[in-house]
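Q: Trace token order:
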Amino acid sequence: MFLNKKGFEIVGQKGSHVRMKKKNFDEVKVTIIPLHKKLDTGTLLAILRQCEIEKEEFQKEF
């Protein structure tokens, strides 16, 4: 998974949503990822924003 490569780890799941967390020194980033086959563009962009990942960086992977 892309976010695993960026240092995020799964810390919980409720239904079809996974909570991922990344610790970076004194900063902690948490995001919720829906486990659906397709994500709306807005949902994907919001996840990338929360994780502080540029859209172009994501596009390079896929």
